[in-house]
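Marked as duplicate of an earlier ticket. Keeping the data here for the record.
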Amino acid sequence: MTRPRTWTYAPPGQPPLARLGDPTHPLRLEALPTPVEIDLDRTALVMIDMQNDFCHPDGWLAGIGVDVSAPRTLFPAINALTADLRAADVPVIWVNWGNRPDRANLPPNVLHVYDPDGRSGGIGAPGGPRGRSEAVLTQGSWGAAISAELVVDPSDILVDKYRMSGFFDTPLDAILRRLDVTTLLFGGVNADQCVLATLTDAACLGYDCLLVEDATATTSPDYCLQATLYNTRQCFGFTTTAGAVRTGLAGPASTPRTRH
């Protein structure tokens, strides 16, 4: 009996992520700490928080003095990565803060984030920065919208979240299981906060996780990013690059797939 919850291992001890069984679309990727093999037919891209309040010069973070230049550098790499994966029929899922206008499901510790004195305007706070009337990161608002520089296709899936993790109190896990996904590629911001929280929860739920380094950034100090990369490779999965994904996709053609 084959057990799909078990990885295969290839000499000399390198653990590809392809699970025992017959992958319908095997894809080998350069990654750290070892190369991996994934089944593209059971893979999705989860892109975290690439929205105006985090990435735009007129957004919330910039309005409270945070340098948002690092997230903005990701736009070309993310557009290239999402285009490559869509062409391979890999689902692209955008997971963004999209709070209820009444903030009824946000506990005090979430409202406190980026609001150390209780007067600076934290997550979901009414009255956005720079004179905007809308609340920070509120569903349907400009601040919660995906940055205009990013290409969002009608086939993409959008999920609102209300915590650092995109899995807590959202339909993300149900969507992925409906798609029969076992491997997740991650990108977005902030690497050490919402991206890592979502990736960690994904690993705890049993997904195979790869962080795409050049599609991920943070407004935190660089040591936070380095710690995120270290912990991902050490505890939760692997890191790869958009270039490695493109190289893998450009390899020998696999059997065409149909996703239902």
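See parent ticket for discussion. The longest strand covers residues 208-216.
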